[in-house]
Amino acid sequence: MDDVITATVLRQTSRRRVFQYIYNSSQPVTRKEIAEELSLSVPTITGSLSELVELGLVSCSDVQVSTEERKPRTYALEPLARGAVGLSILDNEVRMLAIDMRANELGFRALPLPFTHTASYYETLTRCLEEFLDDLDLDRSRLLGVGITLPGIIDQEAGKVVMAPTLDLWDVSLDEIYPYFSRYHSFIENDANASGCAERWMDKSRSNMVYLYLERGVGGAIFWDNKQYIGDRGRGGEFGHLCIVPNGKLCHCGRRGCLEAYCSTSRLSDDLGVTLEEFFAALRGGDEQAAAIWAEYCDHLTDALNNLRTNFDCDIVLGGTLSSYLGDLFPELCWELGEKTLFNGDSSFLHLDRFGAHSACAGTALRFIDDYLCSI
Question: Which of 18, 53, 77 delimits the end of a domain?
Answer without folding.
Answer: 77
